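Today's session is about reading a structure prediction critically. Students often jump straight to the picture, but the first step is always the sequence itself: look for stretches that repeat, for charged clusters, for runs of hydrophobic residues. Only then move on to the predicted structure, which in these notes is written as discrete structure tokens rather than atom positions. Here is the chain we will use throughout the hour.
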Amino acid sequence: MSYRARYEYILTFVADAVALVCSVVVAKLIFDHWFQMIPESYDHQAYLQFYLMLTVAFSISFVCFDQEDDITRRSTKVEILRSLEMTFLLGAVLAFFLILGKMPIGDSRYFFVGILAFNALLQPAFHTIVKNYLRKSGKGNVMKKLVGVLTISERAQPLLEDLKKDWSKQVCGVALMDAQPEEIGQQICGLPIKAGFEDFMSWVRRDALDEVYLDVPYDSGASLENYLAELESMGLDVHFSVPLLEKLYNGRSGEGWRSQAAASLEKRGNTYLIGMSTVHHSIRDILLKRIIDICGALVGLVISIPFIAIVAIPLKMESPGPLFFKQKRVGLNGRYFYIYKLRSMYMDAEERKKELMAKNEMSGLMFKMTDDPRITKVGKFIRKTSIDELPQFFNVLRGDMSLVGTRPPTVDEYKHYESHHKRRLSMKPGITGMWQVSGRSSIENFEDVVSLDTQYIDNWSLKLDVQILFKTVMVVFAGKGAK
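Below is the predicted structure for this chain, in token form.
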């Protein structure tokens, strides 16, 4: 975390903890002392156990939320929604602990619901106090970083406006490389122009500064090598622009390019490199996703046993052959693995596929057709109800797949991929995903499938996974889009 993020993280934790403590006090005051709705049979030990579980539940819910975004830039609407989501998670975790521990105080619904209700109301209020404190922590605040900027006139405004919004930084002045002598001492974006290019270092040596921002295009013809060496020798933090990244980013937002620079440089041989990736997720989120996958796969496999047993006999009676279908598929970034499904087709299905390609209803590299003659009668039923997908919980448990992701293509489909198609494999494939809950087989253009998959990858979060899982359940029960 950056200095700003660490400080905000601590303040947010304290604010949320205080909001929760106040919620407990208010709930107990109202439902116990005023209305006497809490049974008197609860002793001090029962309350102590409850508060301990509440503390653990709060810690888990706080850590599970992404706390690294700038709190001062969050709107009131975002704060309210965030408070409701975090309170819901807190309630779910706390309820799980109370049921697991068979704690008697868990029977007091008024106290339990009251704490959550007041927490949902108080949390945004305490966040507002934190934001006001940060925004109004005057120029004399010793925690502010004193910042100097070197740039050119046409690039100054967006950089300066953004720096001015950061409570942890105080821009002391600007040096313009293209400044005329008469401009020195004037202002730009409400900030004083302290120097031109020639006397930039004199200003830095003279004034109190903690950080220097260099937003200068390389094609300006000026070399900053000597200045960088001197700034380093002065012990200042230096931030400088990388024009190559600007060329990659500019004009590509919304077109699938959402690469993120790595947090640090790496040295390979004599070269310094900036790492870039199309997606960048925290280790915490990836770990939680894997834990959810393992737990979900174990539960799914247990639930699958009776369903598989029911359809096994009629399936094998209609079409002799193996019960399970194993097929080579392409997973994360081109890795091969074998996917497992209940066999819903006749044994010669792959050979007959070539004869049916002319009837393909998908535009692109996937094959789908209505009333596919290769599918058995029982196969149509298990496809309609998605029972044929149940063995894939084994793939999830092994780590080849995830509960939620993109559908893995066949090897033949993969061999015909264009470059942008492979982007849908930049995350681990899943049993369900955006395509499945957005129409499944009713989507007949492969490019639309790719668009949905990249939309999922670019906006991935644990919350999105949970939403897709719930939608999948509804889609399966409704039988929509399955062929």
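Discussion point for the tutorial: The chain has a mean pLDDT of 80.
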